[in-house]
Write a structure and sequence with these properties.
66 residues, mainly alpha, 2 helices
Length: 66
């Protein structure tokens, strides 16, 4: 009986450690892929555009600092 309970705990811990390993490997792989994106000769970033400055944004940020 004790061996059955112990093996269940060990199996759970092994599963947790395997999950942590897979998660960390995925994060590290995603990080290295993101670092390999190139910059063109004009100095602009070739990745996805996450933010675009508009007149509305400029007015908003001016009001923050006044």
């Amino acid at each position: 009986m004790d061996k059955e309970k112990g093996s269940g705990r060990r199996g759970f811990l092994f599963g947790m450690l395997a999950g942590v390993g897979v998660t960390s490997a995925t994060i590290l792989t995603a990080r290295t892929v993101g670092l390999n994106e190139e910059v063109t000769d004009t100095g602009t970033y070739t990745g996805p555009i996450l933010y675009k400055r508009t007149e509305e944004a400029e007015r908003y940020y001016k009001t923050l600092y006044n």
